[in-house]
Inverse folding.
């Protein structure tokens, strides 16, 4: 049985990659700070949660996870930050007042109180390079492969450092010798099994409405608008396409949002 190691396997997308891996017959190990299964999942998830090896690891300390990489056929980096402001993850998944949470979401963080190792460069780029380099040094398998969760593109109002750090990571990872890399580029993601009244769900509906209007009313005839308004995609869909690529050895660079949506 081939082994997949997912760094960030209890996260919003990471847990669905673990699920898809288990369903496809892989041995799956999740590496997170706590080493615990994700919270807030549905009762439908019980069948696969027990089949994942939930292990603790320090993102920036290879000694805490390198032994898990030795026999891994594929390693997935599913860790990243959208904003350097720590409020955003809580705000996006909160079901309190959308307006108040949106204020917290966009409010810039105090640079004097910035948490160490919480910048785009460190989390989105450097941690991926550290993981990949450690994997190359430790692996004993033939043709090891690496999946990096990148992004379709930036969003209006989002700091340029976000997409810059993603693209820099792609370039640096592609230069590593002896490693096949796949760069998955999803857009705004939602979970098919979660329908709570959260800010994430509000954004999901809003973006879908914009995309529908652009395609149906405007016929996608305005290039600038096409670049700004992009379709959403479920975490289940992204995870399925990633695992499908792993199964079929389709590690040929970029797995775009459009490819994932239209396969």
């Amino acid at each position: 049985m081939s082994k997949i190691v997912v760094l960030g396997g209890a996260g919003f997308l990471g847990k669905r990659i673990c699920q898809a891996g288990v369903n496809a017959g892989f041995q799956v190990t999740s590496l997170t700070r706590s080493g615990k299964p994700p919270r807030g999942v549905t009762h439908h998830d019980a069948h696969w949660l027990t089949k994942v090896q939930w292990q603790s690891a320090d993102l920036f300390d290879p000694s805490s996870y390198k032994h898990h990489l030795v026999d891994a056929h594929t390693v997935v980096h599913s860790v990243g930050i959208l904003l350097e402001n720590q409020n955003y993850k809580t705000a996006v998944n909160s079901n309190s007042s959308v307006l108040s949470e949106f204020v917290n979401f966009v409010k810039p963080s105090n640079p004097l109180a910035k948490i160490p190792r919480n910048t785009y460069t460190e989390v989105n780029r450097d941690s991926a390079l550290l993981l990949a380099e450690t994997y190359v040094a430790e692996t004993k398998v033939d043709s090891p492969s690496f999946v990096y969760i990148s992004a379709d593109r930036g969003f209006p109002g989002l700091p340029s450092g976000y997409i810059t750090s993603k693209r820099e990571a792609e370039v640096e990872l592609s230069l590593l010798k002896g490693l096949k890399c796949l760069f998955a580029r999803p857009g705004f993601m939602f979970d098919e099994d979660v329908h709570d009244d959260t800010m994430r769900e509000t954004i999901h509906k809003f973006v879908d409405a914009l995309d529908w209007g652009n395609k149906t009313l405007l016929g996608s005839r305005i290039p600038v608008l096409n670049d700004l308004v992009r379709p959403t995609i479920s975490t289940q869909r992204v995870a399925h396409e990633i695992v499908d690529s792993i199964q079929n050895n389709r590690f040929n660079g970029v797995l775009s949002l459009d490819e994932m949506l239209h396969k």
Summary: The domain at 3-85+116-191+232-262 is CATH 3.40.50.720 (Rossmann fold). The beta strands are 3-7, 27-32, 52-56, 74-77, 145-149, 180-184, 189-190, 233-234, 253-255.
